[in-house]
Design brief:
This protein has 172 residues and is an alpha/beta fold. 33% of the residues lie in helices and 20% in strands. The strands form 3 sheets. Strands 3-4-5 form a 3-stranded parallel β-sheet. Strands 7-6-8 form a 3-stranded antiparallel β-sheet, with helices on one face. The chain has a two-stranded antiparallel sheet with strand order 1-2. Strand 4, helix 3 and strand 5 form a beta-alpha-beta unit. The chain is elongated and about 55 Å long.
């Protein structure tokens, strides 16, 4: 087990939050989660090892969710789990499992990067409509070549400095 310390000073938004980062060989045992502090944690972030690929990553996420539920029931402690999944089917399996439980102690967010990006772009377009603007595309890192009308299935990572190309009526 190797512990990786976080920076001595966390940025302002994190001053009242305690972080515990532990890297272990994945066994999904009760001991793994106990060492990770599940007994007092409000949120557990589950990650996969570097180099691990789908479907193994999603299998690990589901295993973690199921084991955390088992531990949380024994401890009568509610916990929120956040993890990255590759497939929307993984999210569906988790939803069905937790809906069938009589005592669910786990809530979760399975983040699917492509869906997340699409949701963000959709929100930007809707905000543009409210402001009477038409969002046409975006420009990355302040570049001079905008990407116009990106395909819906495209993966876009937004970063600081990215800009949106809009048509707006600034007279009103």
């Amino acid at each position: 087990m190797s512990k990786k310390p976080l920076p001595h000073q966390m940025p302002e938004p994190f001053e009242n939050i305690t972080f515990k980062f532990i890297e272990r060989l994945v066994t999904m045992s009760v001991e793994d989660f106990t060492v990770g502090g599940i007994a007092t944690a409000e949120t557990v972030v589950v990650g996969a090892s570097e180099g691990m690929r789908y479907p193994d990553t999603d299998s690990l996420v589901l295993s973690a969710l199921f084991q955390i539920q088992r531990i949380a029931v024994d401890m009568k402690h509610r916990v929120h789990v956040v993890a990255k999944a590759s497939s929307s089917n993984t999210k569906k399996v988790a939803k069905v499992f937790f809906r069938q439980l009589t005592h669910s102690y786990v809530t979760f967010e399975l983040i699917i990067p492509n869906q997340m990006t699409s949701a963000i772009l959709t929100q930007i377009v809707e905000a543009g409509k409210l402001l009477q603007m038409s969002v046409l595309g975006y420009s990355q890192q302040g570049g001079m070549r905008p990407i116009l009308a990106p395909p819906m299935e495209s993966f876009i990572s937004l970063c600081e400095g990215d800009k949106f190309v809009v048509v707006a009526d600034l007279v009103n």
